[in-house]
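Hi all, long-time lurker, first post. I run a small reading group and we've been trying to get comfortable going from sequence to structure in the token notation. Rather than ask abstract questions, I figured I'd post a concrete chain and ask someone more experienced to write out its structure so we can walk through it together at our next meeting. Sequence below, copied exactly:
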Amino acid sequence: MLLFIIIAAVILVGVLLLVLSNNLMDYYGDGLGATGCIFIGVGCFALAFSLCAFLIVCPQYISEIQEFMATEQTLEQIRLDDLTWEKAAIQTKVVEMNQWLARAKYWNGTMFDIYIPDRVMELEPIK
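-- Answer (accepted) --
Happy to help. Here is the structure in token form:
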């Protein structure tokens, strides 16, 4: 959410500079208006890029959450069936899933949290 607030602030500064350039044209010339247009352009580009990234990244995290839960259920079933040779094979996958979970929880606490579903915070590492 912080990312979108920053982008909105950049666009707002651009609009303010553009409006102020009309009022202060005699003193500053046209440089303020051009700066405002640049701020608006950069802000709109960042907003479009962020929305496209959201449409790509969020579904990917949702599918990885499903994969995490499936791995957890598979490990529980293997433990119930007491298949030791499969336990060794699945441990590598468990380590990968726990590493992914740690990364996802870290990034969910940063300004990029809008891209990561909050369900990630409810998951616990597989033991």
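A couple of things your group might point at:
The first helix runs from residue 2 to 23.
Residues 2-122 form one domain.
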